[in-house]
Specification:
With 340 residues, the chain is an all-alpha fold. Helix 4 packs antiparallel against helix 8. The protein is built from 16 helices and 2 strands. The N terminus is likely disordered. The protein has a two-stranded antiparallel sheet.
Length: 340
């Protein structure tokens, strides 16, 4: 009872304060020292207008894990973006409220501070504008920001965090978006064996991993470029189609037929944790993906030139597939998927 009394008095005290008063009594909200890996590209411009802060990140993580974001209070962002799966999940397609199945595989959440586009079709150019998509989508949370704000506005923990993060207790959609983005900006994965070999020089590849790295450089690196392992382009690589939906890929955003069934090139970082693979989970294993590339992909007018130049395939021997898989496993960051 004593703790409840003190909390009640504290809330009354904050409610009676002016903005000038807040500045005098609130703890500082320092920027977090987010370590930017030296082998990564530059962070995007939006990061510098919404730099992660101590309380902004704490608030964003709480929001990310709050099931009240869904219309029936059954799922949160973290329900589909599971840490042990590199903040993806293990389902072919995302599952939302009332077990509704989405049309796409859940993307991992990692290294978003360095990305130019968000969602598989690149429909959002700023991370701060991405969170609205799952909140309002019928197959995902099927909710609205007004519903979310109404649910959390009387939560005293949120009152305290919004005051610490933004200087007063007002809960707005913009503050929610910024906080979630700040948290997601901190989800940097750069501690794989690959990083220890190439950047830190503290480990070495096995013979099979080294051979896989060489095959990767010859046959994969043009799309899975930079140490993000994606060039962030949109490509149609001839994967099997989901004929049960009206999926059109990037064309859904641009309206151009040239973008039909093109998707953002996925990063290969933590790929061992994110099965199944493909825009709607067409493949259960990495071996199945490589077999499909080798045997020949679907023909399309806008099929990526890399495939067209090789009779709609990327030819690979069984040994090369084994070597590639060994190399891709060096991109696993065990600390990232178990961080606290």
């Amino acid at each position: 009872m004593r703790n409840i009394f003190y909390l009640f008095i504290g809330v009354l005290f904050f409610s009676a304060c002016s903005n000038d008063d807040y500045e005098k009594i609130l703890p500082k909200n320092p920027a977090l020292a987010v370590q930017i890996p030296e082998n990564f590209p530059a962070v995007n411009a939006a990061y510098y207008t919404n730099t992660p802060t101590e309380f902004g990140v704490a608030l964003g993580e709480k929001l990310f894990n709050d099931k009240r974001f869904s219309t029936d209070n059954s799922i949160s962002c973290a329900s589909c973006h599971i840490q042990s799966h590199a903040f993806a999940d293990d389902k072919p397609r995302a599952i939302g409220v009332a077990n509704r199945e989405g049309i796409r595989n859940t993307p991992p959440i990692q290294n978003l501070a360095f990305m130019k586009f968000y969602n598989w079709d690149g429909s959002k150019l700023q991370l701060e504008k991405q969170a609205i998509v799952p909140i309002i989508t019928h197959e995902e949370m099927d909710s609205s920001l007004s519903q979310v704000i109404a649910k959390i506005s009387k939560d005293e923990d949120y009152t305290a965090l919004f005051i610490k993060a933004f200087g007063d207790e007002e809960i707005t959609s913009d503050r929610i978006y910024k906080s979630i983005a700040q948290y997601e900006y901190t989800l940097i994965s750069a501690n794989s064996k690959y990083d220890k070999v190439v950047r830190d020089k503290t480990e070495t590849f096995t013979e099979t991993e080294q051979q896989g790295y060489e095959v990767f450089q010859q046959k994969c690196a043009s799309c899975h470029a930079t140490d993000l392992f994606t060039d962030q382009s949109f490509r149609n690589i001839g994967f099997p189609l989901n004929t049960n939906t009206n999926e059109t890929g990037r064309a859904r955003v641009t309206g151009n037929l040239e973008d039909y069934m093109s998707f953002r090139v996925p990063s290969l970082r933590n790929i061992a944790y994110t099965a199944p693979y493909g825009s709607f989970g067409q493949f259960n294993t990495l071996k199945e993906v490589l077999d499909y590339f080798d045997e020949g992909v679907l023909e399309a007018d806008n099929l990526d030139p890399i495939f067209k130049e090789n009779n709609n395939s990327i030819p690979l021997t069984e040994q090369e597939k084994e070597q590639l898989i060994a190399f891709m496993h060096t991109l696993s960051d065990a600390k990232f998927v178990s961080r606290k």
